[in-house]
Amino acid sequence: MINRRTFLSSATATAALAALGIPPEALAANRIKLGNPAPFSFDALIAQVRTAAQSPYKPQNKPPAEILDKIDYEAHGKIRFNTDSSLFANGPGQFPVTFFHLGRFFQAPVHMYALEGAGNNAKAREILYDESYFDMPADSPARKLPRGSGFAGFRFQENRNGDQARLDWRKNDWVAFLGASYFRAIGDLYQYGLSARGIAIDVAQAGKPEEFPNFTHFYFEAPADKSDTVVVYAVLDGPSIVGAYKFIMRRDDDVVMDVDCALFLRQDVGRLGIAPATSMMWYSEAVKGTGADWRPEVHDSDGLAIWNGNGEHIWRPLNNPARITASAFGDNNPRGFGLLQRDRNFDHYQDGVHYERRPSLWVEPLEGWGEGSVQLIEIPTDDEIHDNIVAMWVPKAKAAAGSSYRLRYRLHWMKDEPFPSPLARCVATRLGNGGQPGQARPQNVRKFMVEFKGAPLEKLAFGELPEAVLSSSRGSFSYVFTEAVPNGVAGHWRAQFDLTVDGDDPVDLRLYLRHKNQTLSETWLYQYQPFKTRGIY
């Protein structure tokens, strides 16, 4: 589906802006060109995609691949959107919109629309692609694209009324939608990191390739002046699914997004991933192969946190496995889950890209999701350039053709989780050779050091020791004890144990701390992979 380009005279463009209720200077000397108005409402958008689900999927038309392929990483990096052409550059609202250009890695054109008004009486005008919006070299292959080739995605720039000395809106953005149904936002540490997706279809599903539906249309409400909130609507389309989305996104110290979506299945889906998050885990302090890299750790997220329907807080450190693994954590109406970056110490990374500042992403259901499971997919990687982690909610009921879903949830992009447990939480997981110092190290024995820190551990009287409550899917434990971490920090304890296990099959471990039948810590879960760790120490 190709965006059509229409050249409008200055007078016509000015009239279009007036109809939108947007002052002409907002689009910077009328650089943004708008198409003819058409009625719009979210209800009508849902009805539209419901009807589309009754018909076979029709792939979008794309500009010539031989041209797009020439817009490689280097060429794409030389194409910059001119912020003078931003949507809402001078209001209304505080956050201008800029657009991404198509290229080798982003070949699917996306339709963009500016909305007049809101609710059931809104009007939509297409934002028509023009290469003049972009600064690019004279010999850029992008100049050979046909008229109306379209945009690849968009981003909201920082507050144009903000502190320019600290954060220049022309150079900084806070949310971006680019590629398939991927999007991401910064947290309160001003860093991008992991991504969210509109949907995940058949991730690591045996016998089926993963499907990547696209956001094909975006609609931007004209924001209220001085508001910290923006509203965007979207259409999702793919061979197995079609959907309508409403994003209400708030920029404060962190970023919070309310998502309202209606989904309709064209085909059966083996693994339907709701509110998926995608991240990167190369290695952490837990397991690192000798000489893998000079940096101590490299990851965007270090664990999966779950607050389940029973109120239990769970922490599952992430792995870079030897083979693709899928873990399911069954639940009924979960309270939330997320991929988090808990380790915020620069010295643990030693990298100028600042992995210690990467945001955490927490998914908060806003209504009951029923029975299903939080599923974690871990894929092997040998570099930091690949996202190899997916976390998502998978409903228990079969995702059959003709099924529909109406879901509401909230995404929190921040440095910490929004609903932290009052219990001590896990702050580190470390593995090493088993056995005791000064004695021969036994074969097939792994030592685990799991650290917890928090207020319940601070309240232990002098001489009191928390108990490590351990269980595993197989193997046996030995040399189990707890001790205060000898760093002088109150409430910082670690549990140590050795695990003896034969064979290469994964081992699921479970641990928490208690004292006199009182639970002191969240629950630590871990999937130990003997094949992955054998022989690397």
UniProtKB/TrEMBL annotation:
Known pathway: Glycan metabolism; osmoregulated periplasmic glucan (OPG) biosynthesis
Entry-linked SUPFAM superfamilies: E set domains, Galactose mutarotase-like
Highest taxon above the source species: Bacteria
Family matches, as Pfam families: MdoG
Entry keyword Signal: yes
Signal peptide span: 1-28
Keyword match Hydrolase: no
UniProt keyword terms in alphabetical order: Periplasm, Signal
Domain Glucan biosynthesis periplasmic MdoG C-terminal: from-to ranges: 40-528
InterPro entries: Gal_mutarotase_sf_dom, GH-type_carb-bd, Glucan_biosyn_MdoG/MdoD, Glucan_biosyn_MdoG_C, Ig-like_fold, Ig_E-set, TAT_signal
Subcellular location: Periplasm
UniProt family annotation: Belongs to the OpgD/OpgG family.
PANTHER family: GLUCANS BIOSYNTHESIS PROTEIN (PTHR30504), GLUCANS BIOSYNTHESIS PROTEIN D (PTHR30504:SF3)
Protein name listed in UniProt: Glucan biosynthesis protein D
Gene source species: Herbaspirillum hiltneri N3
